[in-house]
Design goal:
This is EF-hand domain-containing protein. Keywords: Calcium, Membrane, Transmembrane, Transmembrane helix. The protein has 131 residues and is mainly α. The chain is 59% helix and 0% strand. The protein is globular and about 45 Å long.
Amino acid sequence: MLGVLTLQRPVFHVLAATWMLGVVVLERPFLSWVVFLRFDQDRSGFIDARELGEAFRAFGYSISPTLLSLLVRKFDRSGRGAGIALDNFIECCLIIKGLTDRFKEKDVSLTGSCTLSYESFMLMVLPFVSG
């Protein structure tokens, strides 16, 4: 995944690459805040759908506006429509990364699609569902 990241700022490239390995979240929480601030362009303290889209594009993901809106609704735990706070942004990113990694295991021809049985789908998704 490191080779996919193409960012304009070399320092951020290192931060994003480190984040992709999970090091920022697990070992360097301050860097998580730096990454969050990079995308919180209006300095609201929250990530909105547009900012989330920019973050995922920078991390090498292509996510539709419909899915971005759904992610913001799911991870905006304030209930006020303010956007995604830092801790929920980290959780959202880790879930998207995990689900994408699991999907790529099934998409062996790298076409962006795969055929799954119901059980395979459930085994792929349920570990990421909080209960």
